[in-house]
Amino acid sequence: MEEKLKIKISIADRVYPLTVEPNLEEGLRTASKKIDTMIKQYEENYAVRDKQDVLAMCALQFASAQENRKIQSTEEYEDALLRLKKINEKIDFVLNKNI
Fold first, then answer.
1. How do residues 4-51 score in pLDDT, each as one tens digit?
2. Number of independent structural domains in the chain
3. Which of 3, 21, 38, 88 lies in the 20 to 30 Å Cα band around 51?
4. Are 31 and 54 a contacting pair, CB within 8 Å?
5. Measured between alpha carbons, how far is 59 from 54 in angstroms, rounded to an integer?
6. Is-contact 25 5, C-beta < 8 A?
7. Is 97 exposed, middle or buried (0-12, 13-18, 19+ CB in 10 A)?
8. Distance between CA atoms of 84 and 23, rounded to whole angstroms?
9. Which domain, by its residues, includes 53?
10. Model's pTM, two decimal places?
């Protein structure tokens, strides 16, 4: 078992010390960079008075993207399932025709 790492992640000019599994470090660092980039975009494009408002919008944007991926994934699954059912019906038809 690998030893956990103690790292520091910076988000919105604040440093957060974390203890994480080594395989999670890269993802956390990438995520914090994406959050900081998004914060800068909000601050440049909107009149934002409070960092908490910007962080709330970032959280909403990330959560929305995740939910949209789930919805799309579900739709793709349902579409694939429907296609498989149609293929299965055709196979059953051919097999029953040869009996």
1. 999 999 999 999 999 999 999 999 999 999 999 999 998 889 888 888
2. 1
3. 21
4. no
5. 9
6. yes
7. exposed
8. 36
9. 5-97
10. 0.67
